[in-house]
Design a protein that fits this description.
It contains eleven helices and six strands. The chain is mainly alpha-helical. It has one domain. The protein has a two-stranded antiparallel sheet with strand order 1-2. The chain has a two-stranded antiparallel sheet with strand order 3-4. Helix 7 runs parallel beside helix 11 and helix 10 packs antiparallel against helix 11. The radius of gyration is 19 Å and the shape is globular. It comes from Pseudoduganella plicata.
Length: 291
Amino acid sequence: MLTPTLIVLAALLALAVVSLWFPPLPAGARRVPAWTIALGAVGVVALIAGAVTPVGIAVVLLLIALCAARERSTSPWLRVPAMAAIAFIALALALHKIPGFYNPLIARDVADGAAPITQYINLDKAIAGIVLIAFYGLPARTRADWRAVGRAWPIVVATPVLVLGLALLTGVVEWAPKLPSSTGTFLASNLLITCVAEEAFFRALVQRGLQNSLSGKRYGVAVAIGVTSIVFGIAHLGGGVPMILLATLAGIGYGLALWRSGRIEAAILTHFVVNALRFLLVAGPVVVRAT
């Protein structure tokens, strides 16, 4: 499934995500964000591979332009509708609703007691995450920033214990340790695409936006975390009511990690630990039993 072109595309996409945490690069008298160069390379290779069309590229450029315009403007008449448009486009990209993207299949695997595993290079979702982190995630670039991430370690530990423990106790999932051949691909894709993109939208954009709007209000932080977590839970509607409740609980953990540390990296890490342990240790929410 992985052709040389797709391997290059996947590597460049991973570099584009990681480059969010690189310092800006010198370009003459100016400094250019490293992620813009890496993302440009992703676009070129994706066009060659047939994974994106000019329409998809145009939507990404529109999203970047809206974010840049909103950050430069001080007028609420521009900032409010721009934010609505940014949220709409980013969500549509993450949900694969924007035309012009053809996410390549890179892995398919089946493990006993687990649902089939299918992995794609989700360009649209990854790009939405990159852009939102770049403008609203405030990536850690100093030692002090990374030390702040460590303040959330109790939440990083407690969240997967509570979420997966409750899921096991209620029978939503089943204990099924596994190590399929696609483990490395899944973990890398989940961290760099799923966790980064979802935390970029729900925590960097929505929760921080609500926290800023409710700044100085009594229970403002609690409301911001609560509302964002409920919306995050509803986004997992496909797994049924139990999955909505568990995702909401997990979302509270991710929101607390962001609030406690002030860093989006803590939320991403907490999210990744939950997803990784769920992948490696349990099967569900719909358990597939071997016959």
